[in-house]
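Deliverable D4.2, example record:
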Amino acid sequence: MKSLGYKCLLLVLSCGWGIAQPAAQPAAQAPLSVTPPPTGFAGLDHYRASRIAVYMDDYGQLARYREANATLKPPAAGENRIVFFGDSITDTWKINESFPGKPYINRGIGGQTTSQMLVRFRQDVIDLQPRAVVILAGTNDIAGNTGPIANEAIEANFQSMAELARAHNVHVIYSSILPVHNYTPSSEDFFAQRSMERILGLNKWLRDYCAANDLIYLDYFSAMLDDKRLLRRDLADDGLHPNKAGFAIMAPLAEKAIELQLSH
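Output generated by the structure prediction step:
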């Protein structure tokens, strides 16, 4: 029995020390396909699908202004540097034409929501050392550009930006969300995506928040309404983005708000 057991042991060891078997290779994985949930608006669905790479690789789009910020010199003594911070409405605004000779800086990025703007607030506002920041945001949150979001979460983002600014001695001017219209074919989707009830609710919250925290509330909304309580047809061809006439109304209101804030 002893001899048989010894031979069995040798047999087991010889099997274990035989030719090594190749390790099992993991099965090749198919490329991951991501499709955002449908919103009911074909244009918005296409936009959201086209932004997946941005949302995954650079959610706040910090790369957009990184180089420009790096080359920007600190403000000179006595310079009243102002940052206009927002989405496509700010992005398309030719600030240098509306405010010639003023040290005003445009840091708008088309399509952004307050969640994305909060990500880049330090780089694109605080680090530029402005006296004040004019924030215009919220319309894309209501539309759901980066997904559904409640008014309370948008308000929290507004609060966070204001608190960050205050901690770094940057005065805050909060702009009202602009009204929208549906007078043209290109405006119908934008209008349907942006509930007037939510616009009014957020504007009331912004106005009250500014009053309670000694901030300036910049009311573009009231100045751009028509008799139907919609955005005036002549101020935005697509019902959302101001044209030259729209910015001509906004510029003096912004300048007055800036002067009032700097005189505090």
